[in-house]
Design goal:
The chain is α+β, with helices and mostly antiparallel strands. Helices cover about 50% and strands about 10% of the residues.
């Protein structure tokens, strides 16, 4: 159907009965048409063919667009079509581009939401759970903790929001206060963010370009024999678990976390050796440690204590019909909860410092308050020492060198491994120099007791006549 599509003609157009719509083309402008629906709606459009297909481009509804405006728009569209254009394809392309842009915008908003939710704490927790699951217990526990301590309140900030500039300010401040911990925190933070980057969780590593200007001197503290004796005697006077844990730490020269996490299942039935499993070892290689007689005596007493307390508690539970677990009937040797290794051992180190009488302080109080002479008794205080538990290892190696133990044997006692050793070589190294390592720790135990008890008493405590000389001769 064709008409001269003037306004009056368009107003008079109706849809024939029985049809849902009718298309009326203009006589003067080929392709320009108006579609009239059964309910009287009239829509202007342009119809054209492209590639054997008939396409229609809607211009607008009558009432929203006037016939004159519709004709002008139709002229533009038809001109574009005659010039090779394809308005339908172009509209589809524009619509697809708009949808893509909207989808991208929504994706970015979702990524921002996830980034905001992926806080520093969540990054460290995820790193700990996945990447560190096969590392030693102490590293798995301490590595995230040192980063948290460095970042403070930033723990709750989005991980992606931590900038190198902000981190540099923190590092510059903390390196002056706690240099060693700050260096450790930077190394752990860099490792955590690198891992997160590889998994696409963050886009950048703020730790990568942080600079530490200050040079930290490597620690070389070695306890004197007098300090070693004071420490041994102080530990002997301390209750379980702190006292015996420190004594085993001294006698074995192993790391603090390895000793506090010691388990009965890691010990030989006769308590002659202790095998630190790979997951609990710093270098992730199993390590066999000889237990000298003093260490065996301590562990025997602890085993007897465990068995006695476990039996008493079982009897108590049986009497009241209680089926709860016995806190002492477990594999951990040093534990106050029965669930986790003893904590607070590091904090309790201060109690091992020697006690002295503060006469000067007492005299000062007497002078200030003459009427309080009865209260002016010499006060017992502790002299602060600067050694750390890890210094036992350096002290032991230094003394073993003096006592004639070869450096490579002492190095194996400490479970120091160089290079990449795997497979059969790793198994071989676990048992390398075992007799020599046994003699080295016997020599060391004899020396500890000699300085702590005096040479005359050392053999009695060791229950080995001339133990020090015998151990020295065996290592020669």
């Amino acid at each position: 159907m064709r008409h001269d599509l003037t306004k009056s003609v368009i107003d008079s157009l109706t849809c024939p009965p029985g049809k849902k719509d009718v298309l009326v083309f203009d006589l003067k402008l080929p392709g320009f048409a108006v579609r009239v629906t059964a309910n009287g709606v009239k829509v202007f459009l342009v119809q054209y063919s492209r590639g054997g297909r008939t396409n229609r481009v809607t211009i607008g509804r009558m009432g929203v667009v006037t016939p004159a405006e519709a004709r002008r728009k139709a002229l533009e569209l038809i001109g574009a079509i005659q010039g090779g254009g394809d308005p339908v394809a172009e509209r589809r392309s524009a619509s697809a581009a708009l949808e893509a842009a909207e989808a991208e915008q929504a994706q970015r908003a979702e990524e921002r939401r996830k980034a905001d939710e992926f806080t520093v704490a969540r990054l460290l927790d995820t790193w700990q759970a996945i990447k560190l699951k096969d590392r030693s217990e102490s590293y798995r526990r301490e590595a995230p903790r040192v980063v948290r301590r460095l970042l403070g309140d930033l723990e709750h900030a989005p991980a992606a929001s931590i900038s190198t500039a902000a981190l540099q300010i923190i590092i510059d401040r903390e390196i002056e206060r706690v240099p060693v911990q700050t260096i450790d925190a930077r190394a752990c933070g860099k490792a955590a963010w690198n891992w997160a980057m590889k998994r696409g969780l963050v886009q950048a590593n703020p730790f990568a370009n942080v600079v530490i200007e200050r040079r930290v001197k490597s620690r070389d503290r070695v306890l004197t024999d007098a300090e070693l004796a004071d420490t041994w005697r102080a530990a002997a006077a301390k209750p379980y678990p702190f006292g015996p844990a420190v004594q085993i730490l001294v006698l074995t020269l192993q790391r603090l976390s390895e000793v506090t996490g010691m388990r009965w299942s890691e010990l030989a039935p006769d308590l002659s050796t202790w095998t630190i499993p790979a997951p609990r070892s710093k270098n992730r290689r199993a390590h066999v440690v000889h237990l000298a007689d003093p260490a065996r005596e301590i562990l025997t007493a602890l085993r007897d204590r465990r068995d006695m307390l476990a039996a008493a508690r079982r009897a108590e539970r049986a009497g009241r019909g209680d089926g709860t677990d016995d806190v002492f009937d477990n594999d951990l040797i040093f534990s106050t909860t029965g669930k986790t290794p003893a904590s607070g051992v590091g904090r309790a180190r201060r109690s091992l410092d020697p006690e002295v009488l503060d006469d000067e302080n007492a005299l000062s109080r007497e002078r200030r308050s003459p009427g309080a002479k009865k209260m002016a008794k010499p006060a017992t205080v502790r002299t602060r020492t600067d050694w750390r538990f890890h210094d036992f290892r350096r002290t032991g190696v230094s003394k073993l060198a003096e006592l004639g133990i070869p450096p490579h044997v002492a190095d194996r006692v400490l479970n120091h491994v160089t290079g990449s050793i795997q497979g059969v070589a790793a198994v071989y190294q676990r048992f390398e120099f075992l007799p020599e390592r046994k003699r080295a720790l016997d020599v060391w135990a004899a020396h500890v007791l000699a300085v702590a008890c005096g040479d005359a008493q050392a053999s009695n405590v060791l229950k080995l006549p001339n133990a020090l000389d015998r151990a020295r001769d065996g290592a020669a």
